[in-house]
Specification:
The chain has helices spanning 37-45, 67-73, 89-94, 109-121, 137-150, 167-180, 191-194, 214-217, 220-227, and strands at 2-10, 14-22, 26-30, 52-57, 60-61, 74-77, 155-159, 184-187, 199-204, 207-212, 229-235, 242-248. Helices cover 29% and strands 26% of the residues.
């Protein structure tokens, strides 16, 4: 399964982006706020249509495919998706099976098994019967991820899925994404988490400025130009993994020391 963007441009937010996602890889999408990451995700999922260029799914223009057919091949977790309905967590995750149901294909034990597996993978089994309105932000985020997993996608798009999650669940979700072994694009703000990806795509001011393995992409020059930071690379003595520590290129000026006003000149 292959998802490809060709010369994508959209309303001045995105300009001439070419990107290909295929094979069992995790592609990390990184860049500063406002660089176009979420817009690119929405374009590649088919939720919005580009002004110029095209998105293809296995060689077919995504705009020419029925939404049901796209949803049977690809799932997306957006940054924010809410519901005002009074539903349980299990019901919310069960919505992931919707593309596979119709008048001739009703709910089955196989669908229930997909939902149960998705709840387990997202560590939500113990919350399955909870009302959605009682969930924390992090729990809702995991439920959105579980809904996408219940969809049984061949391609997965995740727009900042670790937002609102505690560090334990952040790491668990990233481990799960890598274990899926399907083409996955994941937008991340944490560059140390991004270093775990197979490839990185770097957005800046609406353009794709670098694509490649993390060790080739996250250079000192790129970090300075795109993110405005200086990085020091540390190595974990236990497993040899790399970790980056960041400092701003320019230190903020220290506040001026308040001075006592000078005494008025003596009249003598």
């Amino acid at each position: 399964m292959t998802l490809e963007a060709r010369s994508l441009s959209y309303r001045g937010i995105l300009r001439d982006v070419d990107l290909r996602l295929s094979g069992p890889e995790v592609l990390g999408l990184i860049g500063p706020n406002g660089s176009g990451k979420s817009t690119l995700m929405r374009l590649m999922s088919g939720l919005i249509r580009a002004d110029r260029g095209a998105v293809t799914l296995d060689g077919h223009p995504i705009c020419s495919l029925r939404r049901r057919d796209v949803a049977r091949r690809m799932a997306m977790v957006a940054q924010s998706a809410e519901t005002a309905d009074r539903i349980t967590v299990r019901d919310a995750v069960s919505l992931g099976r919707t593309p596979w149901l119709d008048a001739l294909r009703r709910w089955s034990d196989a669908d229930a098994a997909h939902v149960a597996r998705a709840l387990e993978r997202a560590d939500l089994t113990h919350l399955a019967d909870r009302d959605w309105s009682t969930l924390s932000g992090g729990e809702r985020q995991r439920a959105h991820i579980a809904r996408a997993l219940a969809q049984d996608p061949a391609i997965l798009l995740l727009d900042e899925p670790t937002n609102h999650l505690d560090i334990g669940h952040q790491l668990a979700i990233l481990d799960l994404v890598h274990a899926l072994r399907i083409p996955t694009m994941i937008a991340l703000h944490d560059l140390n988490q991004a270093m775990r990806c197979d490839r990185l795509a770097v957005m800046s001011a609406g353009r794709l400025v670098a694509v490649g393995p993390p060790e080739q992409v996250l250079t000192a020059d790129l970090l300075a130009d795109v993110f405005g930071v200086r990085a020091t690379v540390l190595t974990d003595p236990d497993d040899g993994s790399r970790l980056m520590r960041f400092k701003p290129l320019r230190q903020a000026p220290a506040p001026a020391t308040a001075r006592r006003p000078a005494a008025p000149p003596s009249s003598r």
